[in-house]
Design a protein that fits this description.
This protein is α+β, with helices and mostly antiparallel strands. About 10% of the residues are buried.
Length: about 120
């Protein structure tokens, strides 16, 4: 049986439990992304050589993280609500606000059992 763990609070979630996926892409947004014909025709060899020299002694992982870093999180319904309210200050270890509704419980009340699991293949 496939299980997931909430990346917010650590709660174990079963395969059929409601869970939320959060994908975060952090990308560099520096400089002008428009190029002129002169930019395209200019000889960039010296600039590239200088850049390679500056990066030779740097940690490749740190260089990569200054350009792009991606994260994927699985959240339970309670952590999802806390995240949506204030994504930049999401700290589940400080306690989550109770929004008063449990999505899994609500779905079960409609007749669908969110805890039913399908047999593994």
């Amino acid at each position: 049986m496939q299980r997931f763990v909430c990346d917010g609070c650590g709660k174990e979630m079963k395969r059929n439990d409601t869970r939320y996926q959060v994908k975060i892409d952090v990308r560099v947004a520096k400089g002008d992304l428009e190029f002129s014909l002169m930019d395209l025709l200019r000889d960039h060899k010296k600039e590239l050589e200088d850049l390679v020299k500056r990066l030779e002694d740097k940690d490749p992982k740190k260089i990569e993280e200054t350009i792009y870093k991606g994260f994927e999180l699985d959240l339970c319904p309670k952590c999802q609500r806390a995240y949506i309210r204030d994504p930049l200050r999401f700290h589940p270890e400080q306690g989550l606000p109770d929004a008063g509704i449990d999505i899994d419980e609500f779905l079960r009340s409609l007749g669908g059992d969110a805890d039913d699991t399908e047999p593994e293949a």
